[in-house]
Amino acid sequence: MSAPLRLEGLTVRYPGAPPAIDQLDLTLHEGERAALIGANGAGKSTLLLSLCGLLPITSGRAWIYDTPITPKGIKRARQQVGFVFQDPDDQLFMPTVFEDTLLSARRLGEAGAEARAAEALRRFDLLRLRDRPIHQLSGGEKRLVAIASTLAADPKLLLMDEPSANLDPRGRRRLIEALKRADRAQLIATHDLELALEVCARAFILQGGALVAAGRVAEILSDEAILRRCDLEKPLSLRPCPRCGMTR
Q1: What fold characterizes domain 1-80+160-166+184-248?
Q2: What whole-number distance in Å separates Cα of residue 171 and Cα of residue 163?
């Protein structure tokens, strides 16, 4: 089976600026959960937007499964992708929580759409908000609704941009458990390195749009030289206890 995501020399450049993504080679395997890590401005959001066809690819090639991300192929590619935007206000536009989730569930057809939408909301304890207008939600509630709506379409590949931002501890835990249960390839751009450690098997670190490190997530996030170079800090769970010197 072909890889859910494959990039060869991918370059994305804004007009009059250096490359935001620079000659990127990357492969995401079937069922793999991978973290996309980097400081602000490293190119994480730009990469995800280009994979959805929302930003044009300047050069190089990219495929979602066997479908090239090109002007001719992007419609078919998008049918296999669920994308969670960094700002949920860019994603939610139906009047109520259930209507937004139902619209996404209908990508799989009308039959069973209401049940799929309800189950996606139940997974995040959001059924109590099903009739709530979107504009009345808190920032964290909007984020969970956006994630639930994306999962209601049962995408083959899940792309997420800072999914844990603005979530309280309970909402963050529901997110982590939902991602661990979701049996599909996932590429998660995040500053939440503890989430990356718990959810993902691999990590890719971007700096200046270039891939500077890739490997097992715990090994990458334990490498202090790479982290310093990329303006990142080791997660607390990988730091030694100041009293006993042991790590978790």
Answers
A1: Rossmann fold (3.40.50)
A2: 11
* DSSP code of residue 129: G
Q: Distance between CA 74 and CA 54 in Å, rounded?
A: 10
Q: Is the pTM of this model over 0.85?
A: yes
* Cβ atoms < 10 Å from Cβ of 84: 22
| Type of residue numbered 233 | E
With contact defined as beta carbons under 8 Å apart, do 157 and 82 qualify? yes
Q: Does residue 185 contact residue 28 with C-beta atoms inside 8 Å?
A: yes
| pLDDT tens for each residue of 37-74 | 999 999 999 999 999 999 999 999 999 999 999 999 99
**Which of helix, strand or coil describes residue 148?**
helix
Which ranges of the chain does DSSP label H, i.e. alpha helix? 44-51, 74-78, 97-105, 113-123, 139-152, 169-181, 193-199, 217-220, 224-229
Q: How far apart are CA 24 and CA 218, in angstroms?
A: 22
The domain segmentation of the chain, as residue ranges, is 1-80+160-166+184-248, 88-155
